[in-house]
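Take a minute with the sequence and fold tokens given here and flag any structure token that looks odd. Thanks in advance.
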Amino acid sequence: MNQAIHFPDLKHWDDERQSVCFPALMSGTRVEFQVSAG
């Protein structure tokens, strides 16, 4: 399987946004993802 997005095991909690943030590599470009409950 060829994945275009790679997720490392790095994450942190953002109190201001109330979300978990983590970096990813998408076609060689670093992007930041955020996941929240609401």
Q: What stands out?
A: The chain has no helices and four strands. The mean pLDDT is 87.
